[in-house]
Amino acid sequence: MRHPPNPPVIDGPPPAERSASAPEPVGARRKEPQTLTPGRPVPHTTRQPPLPTVVVRPTAARREALEGLSLDLSWHRPPERAPPPDRSPLRPVHVVMVGWEFPPFHSGGLGVHCYEIVRELTALGHRVTFLTPFPGPFQDGSGAEFRTPSEPRRAGVGPTEAYAPGSQFWTGDGVPTVERYNEWVGSLPDPGQVDLVHVHDWFGTVGATTLARRLHVPLVMTVHSTEYDRSLGQPTPEILQREAFGIGSADRVIAVSRHLKQQLVERYFAAPDKVRVIYNAVRPASRADPKLAPAQPMVLYLGRLAAMKGIETFLRAAALVAPIAPRALFVVAGDGPEYPRLLTLAAHLGIADRVLFLGRVSEDERESLLARATVFILPSVVEPFGIAALEAMAAGVPTILSKTSGVAEVTENVFTVDFWDIDEFASRIAELLAYPALRRTMGELGREDATRHGWAERARETTGVYREMLARRSGRHP
Amino acid sequence: MKIVLYLHLHQPWRLARYRYVDVGSGQTYVDRERNLAIFRRIAEQSYRPAFLRLRRMLEEDPGFRLSLSVTGPWIEQAREAAPDLLPALAAMVHTGHVSIVGETYYHSLAFLLPAPELQEEVAMHRAVVRQEFGTQPRVLRMTELAYSDDLARFAAEQHFSGMLAEGWDGTLQGRPPTRVYTSAAAPSVALLLRHYPLSDDVGFRFSSREWKEYPLTAEKYVGWISRLDGDVVNLFLDFETFGEHHAPSTGILDFLQALPTHVRSYPHLGWATVEEAIELPKFGELSAPRTTTWADQNRDLGAWLGNDLQRSAFETAKSVGEIVRRSHDPDLLDIWRQLLTSDHFYYMYLGGHGADLGVHQYFSAYGSPYDAYATYMNALTDLRQRALRAPAAGEKGSTA
Fold it and tell me: In chain A, which segments carry CATH 3.40.50.2000?
């Protein structure tokens, strides 16, 4: 007979223990409309290196479980590593990168990714011309040469104000903006000595394709997320078309996780050989000062308040944890369309006084949140990667992910939960609050995982993709 | 030269996922059905076919000897999942050519707990062995083949005449594992030391195609043994080596059955049970101030208590044990002792990284070491609550 559960109350971060420090998240992208031109046939000649084989030795094995597990280890495939093993430096190349967000004009992982990858590429000696509709000034240190439609030479493309936050793009009706951006990209005068065009996500795929063909250079596309995922299965057709067009016309596609690659293959019919997986990375975080460990444990979500992020699940789990962890504070940092609904939900669940909605936070605030958080949670329904979780791990914060998160492919030192399993999320939160050794171990090993591969390595992996493209090209044009 | 073949029979009661929000719900910690299903599968693949071969070997070769250890949880699961196994075992024991080795009932880490826990668990095991097989073990093995001077003294106090230990170079200090020694701490206790290279050839390497000796035939293997110097070669293995760690299709059962034939072709080779082997001439004394086990590179307790999670779980188990003992509730005591089974701690092993961890997880009953730890701790949290609520809680009479 089952009695009503009666888990013991967790009194703050267990005594004698310190809570870990915290992470931060980033949001998703917005959407846009489209016009399309037909793609050219896609060549696929290169091979993906085989996945490493896990050799099972009965070593420490002994009697153990042996359970129903036959000898099938396919469920535990090691994380996909850098694509081409060729490590020799690529001769300096000139890449025209067709972006959209770039810090400080960004709301999510895309902007962070572009900044970091450009910074590392230029550090390796490559030249990057970065195209963005935003007017600048941009965050220092990337080493990119920026071109924006606001340049006098681009006169006629339209007022740059259109791209500024608060403009019609940001309010949802962004079609003319994206169209104009693509027209501008497509008609960009040859910047000179261009080796490749590299486009991020769907925004500039049409213009980037036109530009690459005009300059007779290969086109690389990085996909950070798909419209299916961002819209939770109700894609905006114009965006979907631009996305599919880019994936079809690019000579090589980079996906930020295996999970995403799978989608590109299954839903966008990308040839598997044409898609490389290159994960995101984070900069090593400064270690939180343990003296700042809070008397009040904090469970943190940091990212956009979008439906795909599954924040409702977090709130419902928080409602279960709240009575057994009376001192815990649940923090939701970020803004987005879900805000009003989530606020109402918290009230409805009776935890309005336990949940803190911080709205959009600055970089500094992110950092201090991560330094202070006890547990980080990313309960996304869909999460192609999830840089925020990686940042949390880098800050040593034990992290709970939904099983669908791409970041779960690069670490085993997290809890993963089915995105719909509220009880399980609640239990994982409670366990991390209740057991210091668990927090400490997961925090430390998670930190190692998150910082093992930095952006520099991801940039080298990216140049590996460039190299493949250029090798083919030089074959064609001696 | 005597060959001692000693096989260890054990299956843990693995815990079901027990969530923090379930604490206090009355849900049991163990998923019986799942454990029994695993047991039935292993019985099918290993226990039944290997028992059959061993019985034939005993029948066909009057010189063949075998030693077995059987844990309490194994016996409990066998009773429910494969009731034919226990009579089959008893029949083998009744040939007089099979010895049963003593140990803790729960295959537990009780040797790390304050007295009288270890003594009680060893006594429980003695009782079940007497009941099932009608014998009284004279040789003791500790969980995971743990051995130290303190354990040798314990064995002497409990009137055991011998103990099994790992033939680890650190203990032997250059002396061969093919001799019988006595404990420096307890001279009445003879020591049989596992010949780990030859044991692991069968246990770990037998079916490995990358091994340069692959395929290993009984003829080749007995040939190696015949060339050893000494009085005894101790081959200590998990029973599941035969049919489970190595599937029957690898030829492991045929290898086993062919051993006596090849042993007979060397006049100087023969078999011995552990109880016969401890009567061989002693070659000197061994001291072991530090606990050794048969696991991993370091032969220490690292696989069970090497990381923070494991130590925290064990410390918590210890403190809950004091409360449980004070409750004087035999059911709670039994549950608590089940939680001391070493396997629970092994599942929390973090290993190295990447593929290493994957290998360990493959053998784990849980999704990850964190999962194993959280589940275990939640069970302990619940058990503590139950013990505190038990009528006798807080009364005097604690033995802990």
Answer: 94-277, 290-452
Of A180, A191, A175, A174, which Cα lies nearest the Cα of A130?
Answer: A191
Instruction: Report ipTM (2 d.p.).
Output: 0.87
Q: What is the DSSP string of B235-292?
A: EEEEGGGBTTTB-GGGTHHHHHHHHHHHHHTSTT-EE--HHHHTTSPEEEEE--SS-B
**In the predicted model, is pLDDT for residue B121 greater than 80?**
yes
Q: Please, which residues have CB within 8 angstroms of residue B400's CB and are 6 or more apart in sequence?
A: B114, B321, B322, B325, B326
pLDDT band at A284 (very low <50, low <70, confident <90, very high): confident
How many other β-carbons are positioned within 10 Å of the β-carbon of residue B26? Answer: 13
Say if residues A22 and A298 touch (Cβ distance below 8 Å): yes
Convert B99-125 to b/e letters by CB count within 10 Å (16 or more is b): bbbbbbbbbbbbbbbeeebbebbbebb
pLDDT tens-place string over residues A291-304: 345 578 999 999 98
In sequence order, the 6+-apart residues with CB closer than 8 A to the CB of A233 are: none
Residue-wise pLDDT tens digits, B297-338: 778 888 889 899 999 999 999 999 999 999 999 999 999 999
Q: Would you call A66 and B38 a contact, using CB atoms and an 8 Å cutoff?
A: yes
CA distance A152 to A157: 10
Among residues B103, B121, B132, B144, the one annotated as catalytic is B144
Contacts of A78 in chain B (CB under 8 A): 354-355, 358
Minimal Cα–Cα distance from A70 to chain B, Å? Answer: 10
pLDDT over threshold 90, residue A176: no
Three-class SS state of A191:
coil
Query: Domain A94-277: which CATH class?
Result: alpha beta
Known active-site residue B33:
no
Total number of domains constituting chain B:
2
Q: What is the CATH number of the domain that holds B224?
A: 3.20.110.20
| Assigned CATH topology for domain A290-452 | Rossmann fold (3.40.50)
The whole-number pLDDT of residue A390 equals 93
Domain that holds residue B359: 303-389
Cβ pairs bridging A and B (under 8 Å): 166
